[in-house]
Amino acid sequence: MGRTALIAGKGSIVNEAIKNLEDPLVIALIKDPEYPYDYIFNPGEVGKILKTLKKEQVDRVVFIGKVEKKGIFGGYKLDLTAIKLLATLRSFKDDEIMDKVVETLEREGIKVLSQKEILSNLLPEAGIMVGSIDEKLKEDIAFGFEVAKELGKYQIGQTVVVKEKSVIAVEAIEGTDETIQRAGKYTKDFVVVKVKRPTQSGHMDLPVVGDQTILTAKDAGAKAIAVEAKETLVTPEAVDLASKEKITLVAVDESMIREWSS
């Protein structure tokens, strides 16, 4: 059996994956990563990454951590392999890009492991993790969940911010933190809702709540964060920090949403 590679982006979630893997080959795709790594590449250096995986006899990979999608539109220097790969896409929708990555690796004999498989200990069951919720908060969470799921069908993002059953901000290419910050410019005591897109596989890009998410939410004025149970990765540091900063943290499932929205 060959080696397992961890292809890593940004976030404390990467350290959790390193703990759960046995001697992984860590390939960082960001500058100045805050975790140990063996190689570092620009995300557009697809050819170099594939050659490195072969050289290191890797037969399994897992993708963990945030890599900025907006780099595709001009921020990344793309090698010939990356250019050819992108040219085969019908669109730059998230699922299509990720499916193409999986297809490319599996064609090389490399299996892409599910994030759920590696980080199952970070997938919360339905229930209140920190704080408490009242009827008004339940209504906002249910509303935000339904909006986020509907937007997810169009692969717009995973996060919406709501208050009084009104949408304050919607995540697009900028990412969760900037979405939360933008909401904070307009109001306080809002609710952040994160869900998995309906069409999304568990291979990569599952929603994540880490310590930085909590800090951003606190600074912006959020009162609660709701995540989709068993489909969102929540780090222990995030739970501890939410408790310290008095931000309600709850994992919800479809049955709870049906009850709260009725």
From TrEMBL:
<feature type="domain" description="LpxI C-terminal">
    <location>
        <begin position="132"/>
        <end position="250"/>
    </location>
</feature>
<dbReference type="InterPro" id="IPR043167">
    <property type="entry name" value="LpxI_C_sf"/>
</dbReference>
<dbReference type="InterPro" id="IPR010415">
    <property type="entry name" value="LpxI_C"/>
</dbReference>
<dbReference type="InterPro" id="IPR041255">
    <property type="entry name" value="LpxI_N"/>
</dbReference>
<protein>
    <recommendedName>
        <fullName>DUF1009 domain-containing protein</fullName>
    </recommendedName>
</protein>
<dbReference type="InterPro" id="IPR053174">
    <property type="entry name" value="LpxI"/>
</dbReference>
<feature type="domain" description="LpxI N-terminal">
    <location>
        <begin position="4"/>
        <end position="122"/>
    </location>
</feature>
<dbReference type="Pfam" id="PF17930">
    <property type="entry name" value="LpxI_N"/>
</dbReference>
<dbReference type="Pfam" id="PF06230">
    <property type="entry name" value="LpxI_C"/>
</dbReference>
